[in-house]
Q: What sequence folds into this?
């Protein structure tokens, strides 16, 4: 918005959802916009739902979808549950991640929502399609890989003699595509700078190890739960080759590499991303409605 | 596209590129260390003093440094292209694809990673200067 234009609210509403997850009370921050087929949006490791601002504000999408983005516990405005200080080091597991998504889906009474997730979200949607194909109308994986080849020591992300926010932003800065607009690049990095201690590292426990789905990904039945894959060309974490390997394993032609983009497409360059995402989402919706 | 910068010419210009960038110097005000850049069999020592740098070209008899970044000369030259392409565009991408090895005490590097990335990418600006001069 340029200086001098009127102040205005976006059509995005943020609220806190109080709910039970795995036997503990949580207060989750949830944003939503639009109405229609539910679209649940999952942010990347160490970030939060602000990454979905472009999708939540897109009138073409919100005309057909109830778009919902929530902050995972410990991320954004979702504090960890009571007693977190005695939990030891945070380490996200597949079971815990899937349970959060199911709890939100139940709490909001979402009927066969489409789910789009990026990075760890792009991994967990594969687990959702494998474990709960009938609960979801289809999944869209951004930067989906069945595993990630480690390339740095995660210890640097959470130790008292290194600023965690700056280290996290430093690690991911090159994962933003080089043509991303400066405002969106730095918005994306700011989310990383704001992450709580050990949160990005704890998410990577799932991404870099425990959530490896190579052994079972081929068992996904895309007739029961269609899978759509979009990946950025410049991503060296979940590479285009990794995404193509997933597509091949599950037998889908629904895979596209987004030119010039990196690991955070919806956040690093929302406009460019929407050009790829809108038609994919439309096909996902049509497929869901037919099934 | 200009021809690739040689590692030696890029690094010889690095001090002026960094030290003339007031914001880069400000962001590096807590960085004081010495690191080594290796390209094939040649090495350079980069001294950092509160965000300002100086560069010395080897060979060295008994070099001392906190950490070293080693890659082939062709890797550095491609990294410094204005548009190096996927996998060559970022230091951590070079690490991921095993094109660059970071070794030694990496604490200063990892604690100031955004700053070091910008310092190491600074020679890309020389292409813009060369392209302007050619016009």
A:
């Amino acid at each position: 918005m340029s200086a001098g234009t009127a102040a205005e609210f976006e059509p995005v509403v943020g609220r806190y959802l109080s709910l039970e997850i795995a036997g503990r009370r949580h207060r989750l921050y949830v944003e939503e916009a639009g109405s229609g087929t539910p679209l649940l949006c999952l942010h990347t490791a160490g970030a939060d739902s602000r990454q979905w601002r472009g999708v939540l504000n897109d009138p073409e999408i919100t005309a057909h979808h109830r778009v919902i983005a929530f902050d995972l516990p410990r991320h954004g405005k979702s504090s960890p549950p009571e007693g977190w200080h005695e939990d030891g080091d945070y380490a996200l597991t597949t079971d815990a991640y899937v349970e959060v998504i199911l709890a939100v889906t139940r709490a909001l009474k979402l009927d066969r929502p489409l789910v789009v997730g990026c990075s760890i979200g792009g991994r967990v949607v594969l687990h959702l399609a494998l474990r709960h194909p009938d609960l979801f109308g289809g999944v869209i994986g951004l930067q989906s890989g069945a595993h990630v080849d480690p390339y740095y020591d995660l210890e640097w992300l959470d130790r008292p003699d290194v600023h965690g926010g700056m280290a996290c932003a430093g690690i991911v800065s090159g994962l933003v595509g080089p043509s991303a607009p400066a405002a969106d690049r730095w918005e994306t990095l700011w989310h990383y700078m704001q992450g709580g201690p050990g949160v990005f590292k704890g998410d990577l426990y799932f991404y870099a190890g425990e959530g490896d789905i190579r052994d079972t990904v081929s068992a996904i039945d895309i007739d029961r739960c269609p899978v759509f894959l979009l990946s950025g060309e410049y991503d060296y974490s979940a590479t285009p080759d990794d995404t193509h390997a997933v597509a091949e394993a599950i037998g889908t032609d629904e895979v596209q590499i987004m030119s010039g983009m990196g690991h955070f497409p919806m956040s690093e360059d929302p406009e460019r991303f929407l050009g790829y995402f809108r038609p994919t989402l439309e096909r996902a919706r049509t497929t869901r409605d037919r099934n | 596209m200009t021809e690739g910068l040689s590692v030696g010419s890029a690094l010889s210009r690095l001090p002026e590129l960094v030290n003339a960038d007031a914001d880069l110097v400000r962001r590096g005000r807590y960085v004081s260390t010495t690191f080594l850049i290796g390209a094939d069999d040649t090495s350079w020592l980069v001294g950092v003093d509160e965000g300002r740098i100086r560069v010395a070209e080897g060979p060295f008899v008994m070099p001392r440094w906190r950490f070293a970044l080693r890659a082939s000369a062709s890797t550095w030259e491609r990294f410094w292209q204005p548009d190096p392409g996927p996998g060559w565009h970022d230091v951590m991408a070079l690490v991921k694809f095993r094109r660059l090895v970071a070794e030694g005490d990496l604490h200063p590097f990892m604690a100031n990673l955004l700053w070091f990335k910008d310092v190491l990418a600074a020679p890309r600006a020389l292409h813009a200067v060369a392209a302007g001069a050619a016009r």
About this structure: Chain B touches chain A at residues 83, 86-87, 89-93, 95-97, 106-107, 110-114, 117 (CB under 8 Å). The helical segments of chain B are 7-19, 22-27, 73-79, 91-96, 107-111, 113-121, 124-134. The radius of gyration of chain B is 14 Å.
